[in-house]
Amino acid sequence: MPEGNFQSRWLAPGVDDVWNQFLTVTHRLEHQIDRRLQDNHGITHTQYEILVRLADAPKHALRMSDLAERIVTAKSAVTYQIGKLADMGLVERHKCESDNRGVWVKLTDAGRERLEKAAPCILSLVRELFLDAITCDQADELNKLLETWAGNLDRIERGA
Amino acid sequence: MPEGNFQSRWLAPGVDDVWNQFLTVTHRLEHQIDRRLQDNHGITHTQYEILVRLADAPKHALRMSDLAERIVTAKSAVTYQIGKLADMGLVERHKCESDNRGVWVKLTDAGRERLEKAAPCILSLVRELFLDAITCDQADELNKLLETWAGNLDRIERGA
DNA sequence: ATAAGGTAGTTCGAAATTGAACCGGATCAT
DNA sequence: ATGATCCGGTTCAATTTCGAACTACCTTAT
C-alpha cells in the first residue's frame, strides 16, 4: 500500500470490476422489474415471484416453507406477503390434512388471471434487458456458472 | 394452453431456467454476504458498499447524490445510512463550498480501518463463492454480458 | 405412554427502503 | 434584479424485511 494511498483495487484488475458490475447490474435489473410490475400490474416483484412459483407447482399450491425456500426470504416475510395476496384474492390458505401445523397456499383463479396478464409484460422486459443480449452458447456458459455458484452456496450454507 | 394446464414454461426451455437461477443465485449471494458482514464486522452490505465507494473516491469523499447513484438506492436511504455511519464514527459530513446545498461525505480514519478489517473477510467469501468458479475467459465473457446489460438498462432508464 | 426434541407457521419489534412532500440554495430568463 | 424553475438533501409516513420468541403439532426414544 504505497504512499498512504488506500488499496482501491481489491482483486485482480478486471476481476474486481466484474464483481462490482455484477452487483450494480443486478440491483438495477431488480429495480426496473419492480417498477414496471408495480406501475402496470399493482404487484411487487416478490409477489410476482410467489405467483409464478405457485403457478409452476403441481395443483398450483405450495406449503409456506417451500415458498420461503424458493423465493429466498425469511418465513415471516412469506407470512406477511401471503397475507397481502390473500387480501387481494389472488391466493388462498388451506388446511393441510397430513400435518395440522401446515398450510397450503393455493393460487386462485383471480391469481392465475393476474399472473397471465402480468407475465408477458415482465417477460418482454426480461428478454429486452437480459436475454436478447445472450447467444445460446453464452446462455449455456452462464448456466454453467450459475450451477457452480449454486453449488458453492449449498456448500457454504451447509458448512456455516 | 392444452387441457387447462397452466403455461409453466414461459420462455424457451433452458433460457427460462437461466433467468430463474439468476434471480435465486443473486439473492442467495447477497444473503451470505450480508450475514457474514453483519456477524463478523457489525455492518450491513449496504454500509459496506458505501465505505468501499468512499474509499475508491478521490480524497475518500463523495457527494450524497453520487453515492445514491453508485449504490443504486433512493436518496432518502442514503441520508438514513449516512446518519448511521456517522453515528458509528465511520464517516463525516462536510459543507460543500461550491454549492451550499451540497454535502460531502468523507471516510474517517475509523471508517478506513473498519473497511480494511472487513474487506479481506468479504473478499475471500466473494472469491470462494463467485470468482474461483470463473476462468479468465469466462470472466471476460461475463464482463461483456454485464456491459451489455448495463447498456440496456441505460437505454430503458432513459427511455421510460 | 410420555417426555424430549424438532418442525410449521405466526407474531412482534426493530431496521431498512421507498416515494412524495418539502426547504433552501442555485440558475436562467427576461 | 427578480421571478420562475430546477436541483441537493432531508423529513415523513407507509411498506417490507429480518430475526427472535412463541405456539401448536409432530416424531422419536425410552
TrEMBL record, chains A, B:
Classification via InterPro entries: ArsR-like_HTH, HTH_MarR-typ, MarR/SlyA-like, WH-like_DNA-bd_sf, WH_DNA-bd_sf
Pfam families: MarR
GO biological process: response to stress
The HTH marR-type domain, residue ranges: 15-151
Matching SMART domains: HTH_MARR
GO molecular function, one term: DNA-binding transcription factor activity
Protein name in the entry: Winged helix-turn-helix transcriptional regulator
Species annotation: Glycomyces buryatensis
Lineage, highest ranks first: Bacteria, Bacillati, Actinomycetota, Actinomycetes, Glycomycetales
